[in-house]
Design a protein that fits this description.
The complex is a heterodimer of chains A (358) and B (261). With 358 residues, chain A is an all-alpha fold. Chain A has a domain at 1-104 and 206-257. Helices cover 64% and strands 2% of the residues of chain A. Chain A is built from 15 helices and three strands. Chain A has helices spanning 2-11, 14-30, 37-54, 58-64, 70-98, 106-109, 115-140, 165-170, 176-197, 213-236, 264-272, 281-284, 286-305, 309-314, 317-343; strands spanning 112-114, 350-351, 356-357. Chain A has a two-stranded antiparallel sheet with strand order 2-3. In chain A, helix 2 (14-30) runs antiparallel to helix 10, helix 3 runs antiparallel to helix 5 and helix 9 (176-197) packs antiparallel against helix 15 (317-343). In chain A, 27% of the residues are buried. Helix content of chain B is 62%, strand content 3%. In chain B, helix 8 (107-131) packs antiparallel against helix 9 (140-162), helix 9 packs across helix 10 and helix 9 packs antiparallel against helix 12 (222-253). The N and C termini of chain B lie far apart (52 Å). The chains are: A mainly alpha (358), B mainly alpha (261). Chains A and B meet through helix 5, helix 6, strand 1, helix 7 and helix 9 of A and helix 3, strand 1, helix 4, helix 5 and helix 6 of B. Bound molecules: protoporphyrin IX containing FE (HEM). Protoporphyrin IX containing FE binds at residues 59, 62-64, 66-67, 70, 122, 125-126, 129, 132, 134-135, 139, 142-143, 146-147, 149-150, 153, 244, 247, 251, 257-258 of chain B.
Amino acid sequence: MDLFKEQVNRLFEPATFIGLSTVGFFMLVYSRRVWSTTSFWVGNVVLTLFFGLSALDPNFNKVITKPDNIPILIMVYTAWWTLWLSMNQAITNDQRMELGLPPDEQEDSGKKVWAWPDLVYTELLAMLLVGGLLVIWSIFLKAPLEEPANIADSPNPSKAPWYFLGLQEMLVYYDPWLAGVVFPGLIVVGLMAIPFIDFNPLGNGYFTFRARKFAITWFLFGYIVLWVVLIFLGTFLRGPNWNFYGPYEYWDPHKLEALVNINLSEYFWIKWFQQPLPSNWMIREIPGFVATLAYFSVVGFVLTKTYLKQMHQQMTTIRYGILMTLFLSMMALPLKMLLRWFFDLKYVIAIPEYFFNI
Amino acid sequence: MSRLANVKKSIARSQLWTAFFRHGYPDTDRNRVLVIMSNVLLHLHPVKVRKSGVKMKYTWCAGGLSFFLFLLETITGLLLMFYYRPTIEYAYVDIIDLREQVPLGIMRELHRWGAHAMVIAVWVHMFRVFMTGSYKPPREFNWNVGVILLVLTLLLSFTGYLLPWDQLAIWAITVGSNMARATPFLGHEGPGAALLRVGDVSLVHIGDDVRFALLGGRFVGAGTLLRFYVLHCVAIPLIAGFGMAIHFWRVRKDGGISGPL
Ligand code: HEM
């Protein structure tokens, strides 16, 4: 049993866990067969088995039974249900449209029904159901209250509220000015920009996947992998000092993680050219500037010529530029993760003199 | 005609009854129009709706539930305000009082779990709107209003988290607001802040950067508690309520719930 648990712990190491989630995500999204009723239940059983059996483990139990972590459990299930519900209808519609039929919603969209009773009663039922569940939840689970606030005694780990744990997890890879300010800002701006960069007129008012592959794939990637998965990781797998702990591992505050991360400038000057670091930061960081510029220009250029070729031809320059900037910014997170996992890279550009580290 | 029916009829015709119920039970077309038109809450709805749009499997009722949870939070929050004083002396003990002295009290629980549920409901709603492509013309503007509502929902939840004034509260807010130090140009540890100086005097320092403005001090303290209380109980709910009014109005103006054309 212990051996098995150890294997599971390994499976949840950030690189493995995020990597497997990403692979699993693309397999899910690109295989149509998955979205059947059977797999809905298979998914629920797998989730329930994982949480149910894990709750038997004393270490996992300690984290999962924290009252403020219950919402994360609800979020994980809701994410699966809503993902399934939308993809199932999308695939059904895609199959209908391949046969030349209109989407399922079409038949009814011309008809109108009275708001009373059809809509009003549905709303009433939904409110009663959710209201009832909340009352039950409130009776059985007390809201947490810890020791009185004490600014001199910081708990370890100190965690932000659960819905911000994705951002806190980003701090492992990027400095606060990016992870805490620029990226959240870009998420908001990016969400607001969606209607203006998605020029595809198809799929307006019905579920479909085929007609909106690009939009749906990358929105889901951001939502599932870079948000839900990171919140899960930040809650269940990060313990004292924000170190990684497997789900069944004891949160030992003395666990040491060797920090061997190296800046790109050190790789470049010391390792490759066997020289001391230049004292002038402008010269020292040249490789970092080049790498960053290359990411935004060369990678952008290559994508324009290959994967996004059609899109580039159909969009105006400004829209395409904004799409590319947002897309590359989003992918900067998984990219930095890869660089960290495989090359122990700390910063691409490191100018601590001006708090400017990337 | 039986006597009972007579009594019923005279009640239904009385001035008192007709002042409150201006039409009969909505089981005729005429009354179904009247019920929606003459009730301020129901008139948020159109009289008739697209059949595909009222189906549970289309909207998941997620937008409606977000609104329901917002109302629930408003009511339970109001009740909590009777007991709670936002000062360092009282905040924590008031919560203890609330838990131990108020019989059968689950208002704090309802408020806290309702808040978590609202965050989830709003995400689910956004997800549904995305997956049905409902942000496409003519609904671009309403999607933008929605994104702002999402940010406000998170801010509501975040400011409320501090109010119990326990270890969980201040450290979560400390971790969350520490990021503000690093705001480019505006935070004292942000890139570019060092450039903003007049001679030897730096304009952005720990005593006047955005984090200071947010916390009302150099660390999470009495000033922060008051600031977050006012934001949580007055400012953000007002703005969010206003935003929702615009949101619902836009849903109607954009042709009701989306559907294939
Ligand atoms: C406090 C938060 C929110 C509340 C109370 C709310 C409420 C609602 C309601 C009641 C509807 C009617 C249809 C439905 O129930 O699905 C609706 C529609 C809509 N919402 Fe929201 N919403 C909120 C947040 C958002 C967010 C975060 C977004 C997107 C980022 C959004 C975008 C839209 C759009 C585009 C529609 C029109 C959908 C259609 O016609 O199919 N809303 N909202």
